[in-house]
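Example 5.3 — Diaminopimelate epimerase
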Amino acid sequence: MSIPQTVVKAHATGNDFVIYADPDDTFEPTPDEVRFLCDRHFGIGGDGLLRLTHPRFVSDLDADTVARLESDGAEWFMDYRNADGSLAEMCGNGTRATALFAQRLGYADGVGGEPLRLGTRAGVKTLVSLGDVTPCGHDVFRVDMGEWKRGETDAFTVTIPGTDGSARGTFVDMGNPHVVSVIGDGVSSLPAVDELNLVVKPVVNPVLESDQNAEFVRIDATDEASDHGSATMRVNERGVGETLSCGTGLCATGVTLLAKTGIHHWTITVRGGTLLVDVSDDRVFLTGSATLVGRVELL
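Solution (predicted structure tokens):
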């Protein structure tokens, strides 16, 4: 087995992972091993696997990409795999779990220290350790999720097999692909967000060759004077299914809500907790907690 004997179970607002450090390029996992570890009945269970290593040890990165990551200050890389064993460009919640793990290993500074510049397949993400922050909880990090790109608003039709109705979706590129649908906007005929069956994979038309994460969001309140809103979101993640949280999906939701309301700052509740999303004209910042649950000794 090309994974270490001891791994850690972690989560960030309920988006859960198996995580381990590989500073010497000894333990690059196979797809079968990822599927085994992430299986909730026969393995440890997780939405994905996080391998903390150096950029030069990530086999799918070419030399130019490695050089660019290192020149941008990324000593460490989050090698993220979906639960089905496939490679993923990014995982916003995974960056926070990885940063907390790196802190505990002494690879990254704590509160008040230097930000962690973490390499990902979607470029370098900068994380600042904030400690305890209301309403996010303990071990909170603010992540500069980088640039966003949004397609035409409501350009996609989104349906859920077995559920009556449809919604209009907006494409957002956060380094990985998302289609975000606002429910209760007078256009969607899907049931309320809390009633959706997201165990089944939503169908998006036109079809995206890359596949996509699909987010469904309800606007709960807006205050134009303070430029702040609150919303509730659920998500079906590509290669995983419904998860309790999705960091890039939260950012894509913030970008879509900005397009629809003009509001830049959002408190968004997912099934795993509450996070803050701040959208500027060219960047998104995500603030939320991370948790290391425990060490697991593999037999």
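Remark. The chain has a mean pLDDT of 97.
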